[in-house]
Design goal:
- The chain has about 160 residues and is mainly alpha-helical.
- It has five helices and five strands; from the N terminus they run E-H-E-H-H-E-E-E-H-H.
- The chain has helices at about 30-45, 55-60, 65-80, 105-110, 125-160, and strands spanning about 20, 50, 80-85, 90-95, 100.
- Strands 2-4-3 form a three-stranded antiparallel beta sheet. It has a two-stranded antiparallel ribbon with strand order 1-5.
- A hairpin with a 4-residue loop joins strand 3 and strand 4 (about 90-95).
- Helix 1 (about 30-45) packs across helix 3, helix 2 crosses helix 3 and helix 3 (about 65-80) crosses helix 5.
- The chain starts with 17 loop residues before the first strand and ends with a helix.
Length: about 160
């Protein structure tokens, strides 16, 4: 049996009370881990959609592997539900999905949102699939680059050791 995620990450008095949660209509078909992560981020966000948790902490909270968190994050980014993450463990929900203390704060955040990050524009399912493919291709390119670099380093090391 797993324990419930720690919802005390953001004190209750600072938890958002307003949000456009009808934006769930723009959530594409994703793996279950992506839905779990999304719901956890929505439940524990600070006003404006910010969540400060590392991959390790999220994995523990959701009883998932860190690799599942990374894959879920990729899906949320492709779906434009997660607009920013940093290596330090700061996650930010799309302003159209985030909660706020006051409606005018959310309105201002949405108005400042670049058009390509709006959830109500275009065919979100097709766009999600396209962005997911782009992210996968970019990841494969980085892996190929790392493999190539490591082969070069091994050759250089081999040449040095035989000299």
């Amino acid at each position: 049996m797993t324990t419930a995620p720690h919802l005390d990450v953001v004190p209750a008095a600072q938890r958002p009370v307003q949000g456009l949660y009808n934006t769930f209509a723009y959530v594409p078909r994703m793996p279950p881990s992506a839905y779990s992560l999304l719901l956890w981020l929505v439940a524990t966000q600070a006003p404006g959609g910010e969540v400060r948790r590392t991959h390790k902490e999220l994995a523990e909270d959701l009883a998932l592997e860190r690799s599942q968190i990374s894959k879920a994050k990729t899906h949320l980014i492709a779906a434009r539900l997660l607009v920013d993450t940093s290596p330090g463990g700061i996650w930010r929900l799309n302003p159209m999905f985030a909660g706020y203390l006051q409606g005018d704060q959310q309105k201002a955040a949405i108005e400042a949102l670049p058009a390509e990050w709006r959830l109500d524009v275009g065919d979100y399912e097709e766009e999600y699939e396209r962005r997911l493919a782009q992210l996968g291709a970019e990841k494969e390119r980085r892996h190929a680059q790392r493999r190539s670099n490591s082969k070069v380093l091994r050759l250089v090391d081999r040449r040095r050791s035989t000299s």
